[in-house]
Amino acid sequence: MKHLFFSVFISLSFSAHSLVIPDNYRGGVEICTEKKDTREFGIWLDVPVDYNNPSRGLTNLFAWTKKPFDPSKKTLIFVSGGPGDTAHKSSLEISDWNVVFFDQRGIACSRPSTRELYLDRTFYSSEFIAHDMEQVRKELKVDKISVYGVSYGTVPAHLYGHFYPEATRAVVLEGIVYQGGEGLIRPERTVRNLQSFFDSLSIDIQNRILEISERSDVAANWFSNVGNMMLYMDDFANVFLTFLNNILWNDSIAVPMLKSFESKDQMDEEYYFGHVMMGMIGCQELGMNQSGLSFHSVFKDKKLISDEFNDMQKFYCESLGFEPDEKTSYYSAINYPSSSFTTYIQGSTDGATSQDEASLHFNHATIGSRQFLLVDKGGHAPLHGPVSSGYEKGDGLELRLNILKEALSGKKISYQSLKNISQFLKFEWNLTSRN
Asked: Which of 83, 351, 366, 417 fits 152 for a cystine, CB–CB 3.0-4.6 Å?
């Protein structure tokens, strides 16, 4: 889920053979001393390896801002998705706010000092990440923070609001993860959206898609592989149709392009995407180790059905030593009720997190004041994606930032803000609130 410009969950949308972990392990301090980014104002802090067992000692955590920290300004902590993504390339900046980024434990500058600890599954926990965020707040000596989590980042962000309501001004969740398991790995709405799109195509295009799906040199599940990626985009139907029109009728283009979506080994990355962290959280908390639970679909009588092969189990879980279907405790937000003021931002056709799951989170996991912003035709990160990628400029950027600032301040998003952005983008941003 990393191949599109803003998606942080996209690595779950292609299949792979195995996870390759280099033998020459380096900890985060060594890596980031070498790769020091002069545009980052960094702080190092020591946090417990295990909050349930302090005797295990401490590990390094790295946080940073892009401007000198100003204690007179309000502060937010941004929580990256993945799990496993970093924010070192993020362009997120908000005037009059301290925007604090951090590498979650096991990623980039926050990799532990030893390979043994890096590959220890007990080192990884969404609850621990939320507690790490509290250590960052204490280090910065601020009384209250706002928390902004995107994709998997909505898990630690929600947990922070649950554990530390007295230190929380507001929580903003975008692309919401409600719980691990089938609702996250294979949302019914995602399959329905892809099926509806296929059904809307001309007979010629449908037949060509089915013809390619039967070729021996192209994966039978290619349509869902590509479609899942397209669902990360705003207005996915138009984007997907353009893609298909550009490749379908020329085998010399179509076959190499579609083969690029097929299985390949992945090398764990030191500085950018942490595949080990992705696997440790995904296999223990999110359902990636459940046999037969597949992201991918194949055609049968023009209907999309599961291919019943969980490639993430093979790629991540078995590579990291998990037994298939090993019993673990799936994350469920309902077990962590939050009284913190929370804003939900969800794209209606998001291919990574489902509108249905986001609604369950809104209705059951937050017990305080909350508001739900549904973006019609929106993909995975309709607000954060353009802002963090740096490609949004001018009025579009300001409209998105105005909404974000209202949410981060713990205020109801104004009707005028919603009207302005809906008119600018030509599709609706609709708000529901509840006290």
From this structure: 83
Partner residues linked to 41 by β-bridges? 65
Number of other CB atoms surrounding residue 38 within 10 Å: 5
CA 295 to chain centre: 15
**Assign residue 181 a region: left if phi > 0, alpha if psi is -120 to 50, beta otherwise?**
left
Mean pLDDT, the chain, whole residue set: 92
Q: What six digits make up the tokens of 76?
A: 């937010």
Contact assessment for residue 60 and residue 139, using Cβ atoms and an 8 Å cutoff: no
Backbone angles phi, psi at 48, to 5 degrees: -60, 140
Give the residue among 334, 431, 339 at the shortest CA–CA distance from 376: 431
pLDDT value at position 263?
A: 64
Measured in degrees and rounded to the nearest 5, phi and psi for residue 227 equal: -60, -40
Q: What is the DSSP string of 89-109?
A: T-----TTEEEEEEPPTTSGG
Question: DSSP for 389-412?
Answer: HS---HHHHHHHHHHHHHHHTT-P
Q: How crowded is residue 367: how many other Cβ atoms within 10 Å of its Cβ? A: 12
Return the CATH fold of 10-14+30-181+331-434. Answer: Rossmann fold (3.40.50)
Three-state SS string over 146-159 comes to: EEEEEHHHHHHHHH
Question: What is the SS3 assignment for 293-326?
Answer: CCCCEEEECCEEEECCCCHHHHHHHHCCCCCCCC
Instruction: Give Dmax (Cα) for the chain.
Output: 66
Q: pLDDT tens digits for 216-239?
A: 999 999 999 999 999 999 999 999
State pLDDT tens for residues 148-178: 999 999 999 999 999 999 999 999 999 999 9
User: In the structure encoding, which two tokens stand for residue 191, read together?
Assistant: 């399959």
- Structural domain spans, the chain: 10-14+30-181+331-434, 188-318
Q: Report yes or no: 358 and 184 within 8 Å, Cβ to Cβ.
A: no
Identify the DSSP state of 327: -
The torsion angles phi and psi of 71, rounded to 5 degrees, stand at: -65, -15
**The tokens of 232 are what?**
């990360």
Q: What pTM value is reported for the model?
A: 0.94
For residue 293, count CB atoms less than 10 angstroms from its CB and return exposed for 0-12, middle for 13-18, buried for 19 or more: buried
Per-residue DSSP letter, 123: G
